[in-house]
Write a structure and sequence with these properties.
- With 267 residues, the chain is an alpha/beta fold.
- The strands form 2 sheets. A 5-stranded parallel β-sheet has the order 2-1-3-4-5, with helices on both faces. It has a 5-stranded mixed β-sheet with strand order 7-8-6-9-10.
- The chain contains 12 helices and 10 strands.
- Strand 9 and strand 10 form a beta hairpin.
- The chain folds into 2 domains: 133 residues, Rossmann fold (3-Layer(aba) Sandwich), CATH 3.40.50; 111 residues, Dihydrodipicolinate Reductase, domain 2.
- Pfam families: Asp_DH_C, NAD_binding_3.
Amino acid sequence: MIKVGIAGFGTIGRVVARHIEASDLPLTLAAVSAGDRTRAEAAMAQLQAPVPILDTAELVARCDVIVDSAPTAAFRDIAETTLRAGKTLVTVSGAALMQWPEAVDLARAHDGRIILATGALLGLDAVRAAAIGTIHSVTMVTRKPVKSLIKAEHVVRNQIDLSSLTAPLKIFEGTAREGAVAFPANVNVAAALGMAGVGPDRTRLEIWADPALERNTHRIVVDADSARLELAIENVPTDENPGTGRITALSLVAALQDLVSPIRIGT
């Protein structure tokens, strides 16, 4: 039985916990950590079998696998503690991982492992396969409802007024790496795409605020010597956090299932 710990018991972490409880696979929820202990205790009371709420060091010591669903600012502390202990880290924080490439060396040195789940994206298997050959270009256009972007760091820092927007507005254009710096909590999908394909510096990204949208949407075009890929996804946002799609937590659950399932679908 693999003991799973969840670092960050918010919107995503609670969904992962419920799915672990309902699973008949050899996975068990051993503990969680949380920035807001009071809210975490209230959420924990809703589980069938409540588990301890610990700090990061205690969480890692007690568990085999750590699911990172904490805010981006906490990523490095969680990742470093997990990897130094030789444990497995499952995360969707592609932007944070891209900005800290030393994490891979740390995992290698301590026999740890990093699993970057697909999150709110699709087609990463095909992009990874295309990267074995030659990829000529990768572009991604992200369009989000205003409510998903109004608190984004780039928007606040540059005083971009989205409150009275009546038409789509392009608020960013650049590389996936530049996007990860400008929107550390909003472009994990672009970071993951960059790392899976031609690299974040050659992956082009546009971000639009669109008042007509209700869902976070991504359109990706990959031109390679093996195939031309056109991928589109419309993610249903969570009620608690409009910037997070419901499928993000489910991708973490799927990654956990892959660790123990007798069959794995996809590369």
